[in-house]
Specification:
371 residues; alpha/beta; Rossmann fold; Arc Repressor Mutant, subunit A; six-stranded mixed beta sheet; two-stranded parallel sheet; 16 helices
Length: 371
């Protein structure tokens, strides 16, 4: 879950500027041997070279705070994402969207993924889902040499998920794996998100916003984690003895895009309604037009939505428009007028008022915070 390095490094740089730190930043390599500083924030892989250097660094008595769940032969204070909380959020998101069977997918079977999977299954049990939840480990099924081989991913998807009931919600413990599963599902002719929903982890906008269908993802809160790690290192450099029990940082929430953004349901009328809403987004299209398109009365449509979703067609239509608007605000520089029009709002003032009433801030303020 440390894949979104830019947000993390930006937050470290901000803390450094505010506290008069001088930074030496090394990516995918090692500082010069004999480097002596006042402290180190360490995020390392499982490569023998990096582990060996980490051991040397800690043994030099330089205060260190680690931000990696990989456990080399050292024991230092750590600030980590709360992988279990991410798993719980994944279960809540997919269950809320009415998926009826579930699976978990990761690149490897490491400790972080184990924590996420256990919490994912436990939360689904609490939410009333009692069937088996398969865990697919991509490297075990595809092989580490296959990389992003689309044919291998497609074969894995077909073999693993062909017999699982639809609609199926798949929680992927990284955005890269999520992207692989999304493309494999589409290649297999699956309807996303109506038959298969894909939820990633990391909320890496470069990956999530640039899929054929923008991908939903758990946001682990890299900025908050970086700030907490910097503050811990500051205390260590001041002489405080830090606890060796890891500090776990909870995720910020789920950034819902279009791979889970439509409510899936076993009720055919609702599923068809949601597809029609999506197809007409950006048009002057309301509940009356929706009922006519579906050849049902507005009263029946409202009743079915209330019975199956505890919601209304109007509420779901508004939620869909707002998800579209947030995606445009995050990934484009379009004016508010353009965002409003493309999201199906009649006027930018109506869009701004609706946005603020739901999210508690203006579209401009939200865009500045997320970009």
């Amino acid at each position: 879950m440390m894949a979104n390095q830019r947000k993390f490094l930006d937050s470290v740089a901000k803390y450094a500027a505010e506290h008069s730190w001088r930074l030496t930043i090394v990516n995918d390599g090692l500082p010069a041997r004999g480097w002596r500083g006042d402290g180190a924030l360490v995020s390392y892989s499982r490569s023998e070279e990096q582990m060996k250097y980490a051991v040397e660094l800690v043994n030099s008595d330089i205060p260190c705070v680690a931000m990696s769940c990989v456990h080399p032969r050292i024991w230092v204070p750590r600030v980590l994402p709360d992988y279990a909380s991410a798993g719980r959020l994944g279960a809540q998101c997919l269950k809320k969207n009415c998926y009826e069977s579930f699976a978990f997918c990761s690149e490897e079977r490491i400790r972080a993924c184990q924590a996420g999977y256990r919490a994912f299954v436990k939360e689904l049990r609490k939410l009333g889902y009692d069937a088996e939840v398969p865990w697919l480990v991509r490297k075990e099924l595809v092989g580490s040499t296959q990389g992003d081989n689309p044919d291998a991913n497609r074969t894995m998807f077909r073999n693993a998920f062909a017999k699982l009931p639809r609609p199926l919600g798949i929680y992927c413990f990284s955005d890269t794996v999520g992207s692989n599963m999304l493309n494999a599902a589409l290649e297999e002719g699956e309807s996303v998100p109506d038959e298969v929903g894909i939820l990633g982890t990391n909320d890496n906008a470069i990956i999530c916003e640039n899929q054929v269908i923008p991908m939903s993802s758990v946001n682990p809160g890299h900025e908050a984690m970086a700030q907490a790690a910097c503050a811990a290192l500051d205390r260590a450099m001041a002489g405080e003895l830090l606890s060796k029990i890891p500090t776990l940082m909870p995720p910020l929430g789920v950034s819902e895009r279009e791979t889970t953004g439509l409510v899936s349901s076993g009720e055919p009328l609702i599923r068809k309604a949601m597809v029609v809403m999506r197809d007409h987004i950006g048009e002057p299209f309301g509940v009356n037009e929706l009922a006519k398109e579906l050849h049902v009365s507005g009263r029946k449509l409202d009743r079915v939505f209330r019975e199956r979703l505890s919601s209304t067609p109007a509420a779901e239509m508004k939620a869909l428009k707002l998800r579209k608007a947030k995606s445009l605000l995050r990934s484009t520089g379009l004016t508010l007028e353009c965002v409003a029009k493309l999201s199906g709002f009649s006027h930018s003032s109506h869009f701004a008022n609706t946005f603020r009433s739901v999210f508690g801030e203006t579209p401009d303020a939200w865009r500045k915070r997320w970009r």
